[in-house]
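Dear all,

This email documents one entry for the complex benchmark we are building for the journal club exercise. For each entry we list the sequence lines for every component of the assembly. Then comes the predicted three-dimensional structure of the complex as a token string, followed by one or two observations. Please use this as the template for your own entries, and keep the labels exactly as they appear.
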Amino acid sequence: MKAKVTAHSRYVISDIDNRLYGSFLEHLGRAVYTGIYEPDHPTADEAGMRRDVIDLVRELDTPICRYPGGNFVSAYNWEDGIGPKDQRPTRLDLAWRTAESNQVGIHEFADWAEKANTEMMLAINLGSRGLDEARAFVEYVNHPGGTEWSDLRKANGRADPWGVKLWCLGNEMDGPWQVGHKSAAEYGHLANETAKALRGFDKSLELVVCGSSHSNMPTYPQWESTVLQATYDQVDYISLHMYFDNYEKNTAEYLALPEKLDRYIGTVSGVIDYVKSRSRSKRDVKISFDEWNVWYHERKQDAARMAEWDWPHAPRLLEDIYNFEDVLQVGCILNTFIRRSDVVRIACIAQLVNVIAPIMTEPGGAVWRQTIYYPFKFASTMGRGTALQLDVDCPTYDADIAPNVKYLDIAGVHDGDAGTLTFFAVNKSGSEVMDVDLSLERFGTAKSVEHTLIRHDDLEAKNTKDNPNAVTPEVGNGARISEGGLTLNLPPYSYSVVRVQL
Ligand code: AHR
């Protein structure tokens, strides 16, 4: 199969906000307890945080981490997680039917985030609570001192404010499953009033209002229109979520799903423009895609187990074990975000550790990288700079979800400072090699090229505790400098990173 791709130095989409490679940690299952926090673990530091996990998070170089939920946040009292640990209450977590010990709260998470080299993106409870708790929380986290909340933070051991900029106004408030679910009009009003109050404290906060939980929601996209009309001049981002599944075990359909993601982003981008015009506003609201990932391997089993259990603390939940096919999917999702980086400024892989996550741990034992760790790491570490508007000509196929799905999924990023061009490419054909003629126009001469390849004969191959390196990247030999650019040779069902030094 042959493809022709053209990259031109002047055909650019946007600078990429590094926060496109954000992540997410929720008090859910073993994400926090025995995920990042396990005081008895052999690698635990003085704060009880697993150093082996911190090392892998640092390797991912994720610039932000959203916390503490997710559905969990909608019935969470942030005050339960401050003060002496032995006096913190255990509460029922209504979202996941578990017990929450509150041994990790804002102080512990903030310390961990610093060690993991990531900034906090904090979510406020607008489900069971409202404006008053939100303003108290922001004051506790960000005010220097001299008030009850800020002095309490100091008394609890943190002298300086954390200065968190990015705040989510609730989570998935369109979802009937959410504690404190609201109609678009009710939520829009509450979000606007909360945003106004928080801006009263600090105009420079970046605020994220809830959009749809996914594009199959019956309220989508009217939800976005109503909520944005109520909040447009107070918020900076609208949050979208989407999870991907392959229950049908149909790889072609599965790998066509990013078309649906692309359409979702395009539609919400149109709604933003519509509301902006209607509001006669000069403000630009962008998209924070703050939950995305593959989620289906354990989903049905988890729902059945949850229905029966008796409020366990940190049970195994949403522990999807990813396979090689998911590497291709995650590569295509990240490519979609890069191609839409003019409107999607923030995105968070959901989640980071143990819960539908690139990093897995065993209590008291090992940590390992899931298959999807690698495409995320490559995009996060090498996908920074300017997204290129590539011209791609290649064979296509018709899927149920969309016609004319390109067999070659490719995104390109130019880092002018480093003098590099990086291409992330997925060959969606399971039977044919993709021969790509990639012309580089007005970039100067390519001095060298490196090819990193992930492929496996078995789409179902997984990295597990006992076999953590079944699917790993290798040095590829499919990229060559040619006259005017590159030639690429991409094996069937493969994920590639091609990096050019200019
Ligand atoms: O990430 C798992 C859950 O998915 C989150 O708690 C929720 O926001 C979404 O439905």
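Observations: Residues 26, 69-71, 171-172, 213, 291, 350-351 surround alpha-L-arabinofuranose (CB under 6 Å). The chain has a mean pLDDT of 98.
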